[in-house]
Design goal:
86 residues; alpha+beta; Metal Transport, Frataxin, Chain A; three-stranded antiparallel sheet; 3 strands; globular
């Protein structure tokens, strides 16, 4: 059984795949990726909100349906880039 959290190399590979092809990703995959990069979950009924604990203005909103649209995946990549870029 695989761990729920992504090991370092695995999360980097997954982020690269997400950059290359943002179409057709599932909500739970994006959720695990954000959590692996240190984002904190902040509730929501129809959307999940993930906040960068070091920068409260770096927020990602993910709708809870599958598959997630490409623009949401691009927002996830951008938010992770802002977090890692510091």
């Amino acid at each position: 059984m695989r761990s729920r959290l992504c090991p370092m190399a695995n999360k980097e590979k997954r982020l690269e795949r997400l950059r290359e092809s943002p179409h057709g990703w599932a909500y739970d995959v994006l959720e695990r990726l954000l959590e692996a990069y240190g984002f904190k979950y902040r509730g929501g009924a129809r959307h999940a909100y993930y906040v960068d604990p070091d920068d409260e203005t770096n927020i990602v909103r993910i709708p809870r349906h599958k598959p997630v649209r490409a623009y949401v995946a691009e927002q996830v990549v951008s938010a992770i880039g802002r977090r890692v870029g510091r």
